[in-house]
Design a protein that fits this description.
The protein is an alpha+beta fold. It contains 10 helices and 15 strands.
């Protein structure tokens, strides 16, 4: 019996049925409402949104899947299984639909790839214009600006601000209503951060929406990433120029805390996925990974993935982990007055 999966046919059969498929796998329906909320894979509060674009079960998690994925990716991540195992679950749910493989011809595969590549390039080109405009409209950070106030409110008093961070006076904030349609909630000032590809090109802009008093706005997700103008894998927010020694972390504020505490130059991956995929310059020979101590292990696993790759590249690597579950290095920085030796530990 031929039990190979026809993945193309299976994707077609699963279209518009993903809420039921995911609920059958154990995903709570509260995660499938096209509203910001906790991620069913890595937790949090508002990092996840199930969009179900084109009925394909699409989703985005700002921490574990910022590039987004479809229902198969979400199912595999939720069940901690391979893509093929997730596909077989879907096939079983659909009553064995699309099990027999009918492989497309090489010519058809080439045509599909050409169409997908052309569509992706058009989207990246449009996004590039928007991202460059956002960045050019922003200004250097000043101590009394909302960004300077925000960083000070987070316990980060800097003599000089990284050039990778700017103050934007008017950022539109979009969310989705109950019907799933986009709605504009207003215009806000904010901190914008340049996200650079390995070649140095601006590939995205990270936005933190702020009040004039330097507080995060009361919104479903006060931090957002722009649409990318190229692959995000390998990209980073280069807070300080890399040298022979370089510190790596997830968050921007965490990176500033690491710099204040260690004096090291820091690059931020912005999330666990970004940290694990970061591409470093050749001059960075000694790397210090300041990992988040996530209770579900997401931050630690991302640090281990990066460390293994960098070690294979011939670099010296250390993973440093806060001593308390749920803490990152900004928490450690702000608790430094307690002189608690349990606040940090070396994991490598």
């Amino acid at each position: 019996m031929n039990n190979r999966l026809d993945l193309i046919g299976l994707k077609d059969a699963a279209r518009n049925r993903w809420p039921g498929i995911l609920q059958a796998a154990g995903v709570d329906p509260k995660h499938l409402r096209n509203k910001h909320g906790a991620c069913p894979v890595c937790g949090g509060k508002d990092r996840f949104r199930f969009t179900d674009k084109d009925g394909r079960g699409c989703y985005v998690c700002n921490k574990c899947r910022p590039d987004g994925g479809d229902g198969f990716h979400l199912l595999a991540a939720f069940r901690s299984c391979s893509f093929i195992e997730a596909a077989r679950f879907v096939s079983d749910y659909l009553g064995g639909a699309a099990v027999t493989a009918t492989a497309p011809s090489p010519e058809e595969l080439a045509r599909r790839k050409e169409r997908e590549d052309a569509e992706q390039k058009r989207a990246w080109l449009n996004n590039r214009a928007v991202n460059l405009s956002t960045w050019r409209q922003a200004h250097p950070v000043m101590p009394g600006s909302p960004v300077g106030l925000y960083l000070r409110n987070r316990g980060l008093s800097l003599a000089e601000y990284p050039q990778a961070l700017r103050f934007h006076p008017c950022l539109p904030y979009w969310d989705r209503g109950e019907d799933g349609k986009p709605i504009k909630l207003g215009d806000f000032c904010g901190m914008v951060a340049a996200v650079q590809a390995p070649d140095g090109a601006l590939v995205a802009v990270h936005k933190t929406y702020l009040t004039g008093a330097g507080r995060k706005i009361d919104a479903p997700s006060p931090k957002k990433m722009s649409k990318p103008s190229g692959p995000l894998a390998g990209a980073a927010c280069r807070l300080f120029p890399a040298g022979e020694k370089l510190a790596i972390c997830e968050g921007i504020e965490t990176g500033l805390a690491v710099h204040l505490g260690s004096g090291l130059p820091v690059w931020a991956g912005l999330n666990a996925f970004g940290l694990s995929q970061m591409v470093l310059p050749p001059e960075a020979r000694q790397v210090f990974i300041y990992a988040d101590h996530d209770e579900n292990g997401t931050g630690q696993n991302a640090a281990k993935t990066l460390a293994d790759r960098l070690t294979q590249e011939g670099r010296s690597v250390r993973i440093l982990l806060p001593g308390k579950p749920g803490w990152d290095w900004l928490d450690v920085w702000n608790a430094r007055a307690s002189n608690d030796p349990q606040n940090e530990k070396d994991a490598a």
